[in-house]
Amino acid sequence: MKTKSSGDIVFAGFVYVFLILVFIVTFYPFWNILVLSLNSAEDTIRGGIYFWPRVFSLSSYQQILTDQEILNGVKVTVARTLIGTPLAVLVISLLSYPLSKRDLVGGKFFTLFFIFTMYFGGGLIPYYMILKSLHLIDTFWVYIAPGLMNVFFMILVRTFIQQLPGELDESAKMDGANDLQIFLKIVLPLTLPVLATIGMFTAIGHWNSWFDSYVFTYKPELKTLQAVLVKILNQYQTSTMVSDAQQMADSAKRLAVSSDSIRMAATIVATLPIVIVYPFLQKYFVKGMTVGAVKA
């Protein structure tokens, strides 16, 4: 058995110390948010809470989970994620499959056409006007339709499909299968890693999205969880600038929960679902991203 030299031991120790420091730097902010959210509202105002709750309390979560505005935001966000993610994966995969065929007539033109849209756009105002002309403004489908196509994800899936052996298509066609049957029975099962990857990224995008809800919707029942969270953050950040009467009205509406505790609890509620789902799809990420990104 080969013995390690002192240099190898020192280098390994340096690597472990570095990784531990990276873990602390990345994990502690989330841990501190959780600790603040679990601390008593009145005690949080005193400050000085860093590693564990000083006075354990679930008052902030009780306020979050009983607020109708937040509950409605959760429903809208869950609905757009569950509907928008599979539809986007379906549209991207349906487009990627024909563009992966090197003998497709005009295939290079269509690929360059889509890539062009990655670098050039009309801006927010023309985009708003397009959505308005399509009657998507202030509707639930403004969250779904614009996100059905992602050119970068399409390139990943297309390149992934191109890595598959061409003999699979040839043997299937010899057995009488058409392109749709090949796509459904052969291509889709084999592209599961990259589809899971883009599906997860798309779901995270839907879950964390707030700007489209802020700009393209006006009805309170259409506001997403992240948009409500932004509203809460802005509300408490500007609480020192409003009148005493307004502060009393806000406190009567939101109950006696400190600004830090309510913000941290809302952040945990908005982040926790993604944290729970991510480990189950993590095994697909490396293969999906590396194989799909070998070449464009």
UniProtKB/TrEMBL annotation:
Keywords: Cell membrane, Membrane, Transmembrane, Transmembrane helix, Transport. It is a multi-pass membrane protein. It comes from the Bacteria. Residues 74-281 form the ABC transmembrane type-1 domain. InterPro entries: MetI-like, MetI-like_sf. CDD domains: TM_PBP2. GO terms for biological process: transmembrane transport. Pfam families: BPD_transp_1. The chain crosses the membrane at residues 9-31, 78-97, 109-128, 140-161, 182-204, 262-281. One of its GO terms (cellular component) is plasma membrane. The keyword Membrane applies. Its main location: membrane. It is found in: Cell membrane. Belongs to the binding-protein-dependent transport system permease family. This is ABC transporter permease subunit. It comes from Paenibacillus silvestris.
